[in-house]
Known about the structure:
Chain A is an alpha/beta fold.
Amino acid sequence: MPVKLGLFLCDCGGSLKNIDFPKIRGNLGKLEDIAFVEISHNLCLEEGEKAIASRILRENVNRVVIAACSPALCEDKFMRLLEGLGLNSDLLSIANIREQCSWAHKGDVTEKALEIIRMAINKARLLQGVERGEVPVNKEVLVVGGGFSGMKSSLELSRLGIRTTIVERESTLGGKLKELEGFYGLRTSPNEMFASMTRMIEEDKNIEVFTSAEVARVQGEVGDFAIRIRSGEKESSQSFGAIIFATGYRTEILPQDFELKPGGNIISQQRLVEMLQAPEKLARRPETIGFVVDFSDENSRLPTLSALKNALAVKDKLGSEVYVFCKNLKVDSEGTEKLYREARDRGVVFLKFEEKPRIYGEDGRVTIEARDVLLGEEVTLLCDLLVAEEKALPPEGTKALSSMLNIETDSQGFYQDENVHLYPVASGRKGVFFVGGCRGSLDLGRASTDIASAVGSVHELLSPGGAMVEVEKVKADSQKCRACLTCIRVCPHEAIRLVRVDSERWVAKIYDLACDRCGICAAICPATAIKFEGYSDEQILAEVEAI
Amino acid sequence: MTRENKKIIAFCCAESAYRAADRAGRLRIRYPDNVRVIRIPCAGRVSVLHILKAFEKGAAGVLVMGCQEGACRHLTGNIRAKERVKYAKDLLKEVGINGQRVKMVNFGPDMAQKFAREIEEMVEKIKEEK
């Protein structure tokens, strides 16, 4: 079918005064394949849309070029409009004559506008429609990790009627919940929460639990992940539509930072919690307890939070004197500022040092020496117990898991905390989500936000229409493909695999649902076998041609 | 090859640089009007062919504009683009075109000033050569 173009020009309510629209119409109207050039004042309003619709239907055009504002603003709207008319929305090309032309330059810019529109017309001539279709998706979800985040994700998904399987490495569920002394600002104790959540999971028919088990292999792509679960000697394979990782974190004292020797009078937060849970077992009540926070790690929200919480618990249960040695107290996570004030009101003493304190542990007491910035003096303190700073680290096995998934970790070793585009819980691989501690969301509030976000995304994916895709928008030509694996190696979304076409030949296949339409493969394919409709080599070069 | 019009082609990643260019317009930051922006889904979509063809069609300079390193929506797209730009530079030098006429730039979507500055710099560079 020959190309028949319809060109709409929008002068944005008459505000683009430095473009001569009638001149553009006169100039481009002469082109052979342009059926009409229509100047409108506001294409984005209802009457503008109506005008577009009636003109397209009347003239029966098969490509549409719209010269208006940025496609970042208007593309979705016009694509939906074309779809509503029964036209393929990929047959639309937009020329940005507002933000990148009229608004960016002083004086008459008709020439530049003309050229930008020519670029869009050149591209539009080569556009091909792409069909829409729904990819079948497995409706089950795998949750890796059975701590708070994992359990909560499963329960939330179950409420939406989605079946989940929890794989937990330990012999019981619960993770860090079993180790915590209390939550700040919540009346429920971690133990009660653990008990009620495990009970709910046991009663829930939608949730299956594997304990003492781990993920041994991940294959496939979103909608159809083939997972091998190893539990002891046994291995089983199962298919899932999406995966939520909630593998948590671990904490560790960093003795090298202070030349500390943990043990005896220098203890971890964890050991302190154990003491607080059974104060009657202590041989002697400690008179003074010191906490060290924020000296070795910039990202010290969690250690700060737990030190504050435990300092208050010490006041409640032991009544000891409490000193907190810090450089800067990080109080930006929710409720921490209030907690800090409460601690001060209750008599916890905060000492601010610029340099790391010198710590000596001898004769059953611990001596701390440092220069206090506020007093401007050397301070020496004696404590019965010193609670050392802990650092939050990714759990063991994170590296192995990330290489199995081919997903990168951030500078701290956590999953996906730093890429702004994937914020907050998605990963480079579609259908794989990270929530809670394993991506550095260490407090309960932030973990809950993560869970809500991931559950929402999974629910959207598994709902009807959630797996609607542009079929073969990026496609490898099976005749040209030489199965060199280049595209498979470069694909950041793990969306390409080799498939067998006959007894001798394998070719690359791009999975529409896993593909994120970046075009890296199309740029790198040495056989130019991959065509990215809308941004194919020909279409990009046609734009270049117009200059 | 016509150099008179001195056009600059900017391949702009839709996630960052294209938005930066839009923002420059919205803030009325003026920059030379001989730049032509081509919107691409990711800087990684640009191949050496596109860069060389742009010169063949008479462009005086080519800018490949992607996301900040480490913040590419497609993880490695901007890094691949950087490699290709480097490769294209070498090829251009071989045929006697100054390699500085092609440049990779990293953007955040709000860096409107930087967008304008990069265009100005490229225009200056081309002027100097003439």
